Amino acid sequence: ILLLTIVLSDMGFGLVLPVFLFSAENLGASPLVATSIVASYPLGQFLMNPVWGRMSDQHGRKRILLISTAGVIGAYLIMAAAENLWMLALGRMMTGILAANAPVAMAYIADITPPEKRTQGMGLIGGALSIGLVVGPALGGLLGGADAESASMRWPGLCAAGLCTLTFIATLFLKESLPPEKRSRPAAGEHHPGGPADFIRLMQKPILARLIIIVFLTFFAVGLFESIVPLWSEARFGWGPRDIGLCFMYLGLVIAFSQGYLAGKLAARFGEKRLVLYGTGIYGAGLLWMTQSPNWPLMMIGLTLTAVGGALAATNMMSLVSHQANEDERGLVLGIYNSSTWMGRFMSPPASGLLFQTVSVQTP
Description:
78% of the residues lie in helices and 0% in strands. It contains 15 helices and no strands. It has helices at 2-15, 20-26, 31-59, 61-81, 85-98, 102-112, 118-143, 154-171, 196-202, 206-226, 229-237, 241-270, 272-292, 296-322, 330-358. The longest helix is centred in the last third of the chain and has 30 residues, at 241-270. The radius of gyration is 19 Å and the shape is globular.
């Protein structure tokens, strides 16, 4: 049931990927403004991942999943009804704030899996996320318009809201994984769970601090690539929402296979630390290949490398971080992890849009 809720939730997120930048441009945004609006989602994720994670440590996983999913439904409805950039930006920011529940799902998996099977469990979450990214963008590309000029968020937004409604219903049948006797108690004077004080305390752990820095740098690079793909592929190959939707669908399939199957198998043979190193190297090689590809079939080879490398690195980073958490602070630690990934993704879209707009198509 948990994996089903993750699939449905990420289908909702994936639905808007192929069409969002085009829709923003049709409402009058420049590439820099459009990518800055895109960045409001990771900003919300950055701010709220530790908060939702810490609240799940204190109040249980299921309750927090229900509250956040209910809010996301309203956010997608705002995006569907957006007739100006302010509404579009508000809906995007709200989805980031309210959908920042991935650490809750990760903590749930950590609650119910022994340490030796943790990488496999985190891989299943990554695989479920990727299945959502397979189906979601394909639907979004079909519903968002045939080309850049006709792109609209109305039908993708309504469909995403519907999928999140199904997610909410499915979550109602989920069993709580953290019984009351294992929940953390708020410290004396703690008014902001998952706030700066918790972050400072956890960053005093040397291994965890090093992992958080690695995660931030990796996902800054990921964000430079992800946020500009629709405009980059339109400029290079003349693609529209449907082409990009199919591309994201393929990307999701490769990531799902890599996270759901390869990551667990390879971690047992090579170790998590080594796979983080190999994965980031393969990801960088894929990006370089994409910039040098003269046509889209050759470009897809580089895209495949980024999918495999990114999946291996992210899954094993997630597992390494989970080993640094005590039972009563898993939600918080995984929230800090996710927050660092989204901080990278928040800072990179405006940089990517500025480089694309002022230097060259290939620079990001």
